[in-house]
Amino acid sequence: MDKTTATPKRSAKEQMIRGSVWMTAGSVFSRILGAIYVIPWWVWMGGAALSANALFTKGYQIYAVFLIISTAGVPGAVSKQVAKYNAMEEYRTGLRLFYHGAIMMSLMGVVAFGAMWLLAPVLSAGDERMIPVFRSLAWPLLVIPVLSLIRGFFQGYNEMAPSAISQFIEQVARVAYMLAATFMIMRLGSHDYVSAVTQSTFAAFIGAVFGLGILIVYFVRQRPRLHELAANGRDDLHISTNQILIDVLQQALPFIVMDSSINLYYIIDQYTFNPMMLRVFKTSREQLDQIFALFAGNANKLIMIVVSLAVAMAVTAVPLLAAAKTRGDAKELAAQITNNLQLFFIVMIPAAFGMGAIAQPLYVVFYGYDALGISMLHLSSFLAILLGLFTVLAAILQGLFNNRLAIIEMLIGFAVKIVLQWPFIVFFNVYGPVLATIVGMAVSSGLMIYSLRKDYHFNLNQTVRRVLGIVLFSGMMYAAVRAIIGLFNLVVSPESRFWAVVMLLVSVGIGGLIYAYLVLKTRLADYILGSRVAGIRRRLHIR
């Protein structure tokens, strides 16, 4: 951590872009790795692949909520509070928060582990196969709360590299253990897919241990500088340790609710999809489990690569907004909100449109040809825009200490999802849950944008104009890529994995060039990303 960390010389926009690059790199590479493992995992599972993925998905949906509760929203809260104290030059208070918070989070981990282990039979909802899966996912809850605290502490200093690198190392270790265990069981051992899934979910513990180890190394190296900052900073804020922790928990509760919101949407699907479908259609529970895996497991795993772009931006935005709010700089706040949203749109919209355009070859590469699965991925790709937008907007509101408003507007959208779930399943069949989620997320996002415009007067008109340009250029790229894949389908088999890889390489390359040329040629990239983009345009001889 250099001295620019304590007294940033970069503008808030530059810090946002720099931090987003680090967090995006770590998050996207981790997500890609977390998707690529599916290819050998799927092959080794053989005929049990869809059933295994249904167990894996159901286990992780519940685990994700336990994880958010066990971390108590602390990463975001600590990031926000440390940024606040740093803006006041009260570095010693931030360190006190960290050391006492580590003890508190260790205890939270033990409690969460015990709760998930004991509740496994209840959470299984009568499916005995789920009990060992849930219990294997209790183990990482011992480690991740402390790991998350350290990440939040570094993020409060606008140091995103430790979080990004540890996230990637965590994923590498998790995937390596998962694949080794699956191969040993399914190819050399008992061939019991439930055991293979159980070891695959236990891999989260292995990954967490490695991720924590990397963060501890970073902290030990930075400790002298952190204590030097504390020694040279102010010490005018006389606040008890208990009050520091209470402040963090008060800020953390909204993060628990907001961070778990996307998972709660999928949990609604998990516990309502089968019963509602069985009331309308004649089918088997096993077939419904497999259909559920198509959108909640297969499609979700791929679109979360795109959504991770928004998560990275959201993590970067929170401490910057909290610091600006603490300084009371209304003009800077409006500019930051505008920058955050426009940066999100220029990356997220083309990424989601692009994934929708390549849904067929992308799905074939990972899971093999399945017409319904491809349609689910295509629809879910556009859902990714709303999931990402909701994530960024919620982070902005929380960074501005508007926690209560964020929760209320999230709950309104969530209520819309619940109300629409049944009629949408009746009218739209297996697509109903995804469409209900789209409407619910759209309602919440619309309310949040209205609130931010009303209270902080960010430049909505400029943002809308630029978003329309981004949508237009993304639509042109989408049409071109779809046409390329359509031409391929005329001469090669759409079910071939080899040709799917060829389609991806050609279509992604051409689509990326089309979008990049359009945003550079029109100067749209300059307006949003800054003047440095002009250098790229000159090197590419685009006038």
TrEMBL record:
InterPro entries: PG_synth_SpoVB, Poly_Biosynth_Transport, Polysacc_synth. The keyword Iron does not apply. It is found in: Cell membrane. It is a multi-pass membrane protein. GO terms for cellular component: plasma membrane. It comes from the Bacteria. The chain crosses the membrane at residues 21-40, 60-78, 98-117, 137-154, 175-194, 200-220, 302-322, 343-366, 372-397, 430-450, 470-492, 498-520. Keywords: Cell membrane, Membrane, Transmembrane, Transmembrane helix. PANTHER family: LIPID II FLIPPASE MURJ, PST FAMILY PREDICTED COLANIC ACID TRANSPORTER. This is Polysaccharide transporter. It comes from Lacticaseibacillus brantae DSM 23927.
